[in-house]
TrEMBL record:
Top-level taxon: Eukaryota
Function: Stabilizing subunit of the glycosylphosphatidylinositol-mannosyltransferase I complex which catalyzes the transfer of the first mannose, via an alpha-1,4 bond from a dolichol-phosphate-mannose (Dol-P-Man) to the glucosaminyl acyl phosphatidylinositol (GlcN-(acyl)PI) intermediate to generate alpha-D-Man-(1->4)-alpha-D-GlcN-(1->6)-(1-radyl,2-acyl-sn-glycero-3-phospho)-2-acyl-inositol and participates in the sixth step of the glycosylphosphatidylinositol-anchor biosynthesis. Probably acts by stabilizing the mannosyltransferase PIGM.
Organism field: Lutzomyia longipalpis
Entry's transmembrane regions: 188-210
Lineage of the organism: Eukaryota, Metazoa, Ecdysozoa, Arthropoda, Hexapoda
Metabolic or biological pathway, per its Swiss-Prot or TrEMBL entry: Glycolipid biosynthesis; glycosylphosphatidylinositol-anchor biosynthesis
Protein name: Phosphatidylinositol-glycan biosynthesis class X protein
Any one Gene Ontology cellular component term annotated for this protein: endoplasmic reticulum membrane
Keyword line: Endoplasmic reticulum, Glycoprotein, GPI-anchor biosynthesis, Membrane, Transmembrane, Transmembrane helix
One Pfam family from the record: PIG-X
């Protein structure tokens, strides 16, 4: 589910495995979430999730949170948890600013559905899954590495074998988000109003200073 409104929101993941995993065997679960170029996440907030909720995460690329959407790229985020019967993860996300336009007032940012995989020692998933995948392990990196620009690809990061859980994804309000754009047709109006406001303020200040000096 997509919570809140505006540029700063939360993706809410509610996982319900319905007793699929044995309580005696704790498996790793990874949510693989691709985010559009118009969306970013902040490393400090991911660090907070790990510190307070014990949910590790990994991004294999450097994310420039200051760049506008047009010069950014989509990226994949890995969120890790354990095979509890139920799990809840709240991921803070932020929508990027877009270049202003003279043709439209909004940009549509698609929200992609996540995929869920498991890595479970002692359980043979090869018979249940049609294909195995290789993703970073749940201990792939420390959160302090997120803002280092040299992070690119998964080179040097431990990779584990993961299997598709074939989970049903029920999405609510996460198909597309409309982000408001600046209007290029308003340039002249904005310049005129801004200039008039600045000159009026300057004139008032000069008048006030002159009046005080005279008195």
């Amino acid at each position: 589910s997509l919570l809140n409104s505006g540029y700063h929101r939360e993706l809410l993941y509610q996982l319900d495995f319905g007793g699929r995993f044995k309580k005696s065997t704790q498996c790793d679960i990874v949510i693989v979430q691709t985010l559009h170029q118009g969306v970013y996440v902040r490393g400090d907030q991911l660090a907070e999730i790990k510190r307070h909720h014990l949910k590790n995460s990994y991004i294999p690329v450097h994310v420039d949170i200051e760049a506008p959407a047009e010069i950014s790229s989509s990226f994949t985020l890995y969120l890790y948890t354990k095979s509890y019967d139920k799990a809840v993860i709240r991921l803070p996300i932020h929508f990027r600013y877009h270049y202003p336009s003279s043709l439209t007032s909004f940009a549509n940012v698609p929200m992609y559905e996540p995929s869920i995989y498991t890595s479970c020692p002692g359980r043979n998933y090869e018979r249940e899954a049609s294909q195995s995948y290789y993703f970073p392990c749940s201990n792939a990196t420390q959160v302090i590495d997120y803002d280092q620009e040299e992070l690119s690809g998964v080179g040097g990061v431990p990779v584990c074998t993961w299997f598709d859980l074939k989970c049903k994804v029920f999405s609510r309000g996460v198909a597309t988000v409309s982000v408001p754009l600046g209007n290029l047709n308003m340039n002249i109006v904005v310049v005129v109003i801004t200039t008039a406001t600045v000159w009026s303020a300057c004139g008032y200040i000069i008048f006030a200073i002159a009046r005080k000096t005279k008195n």
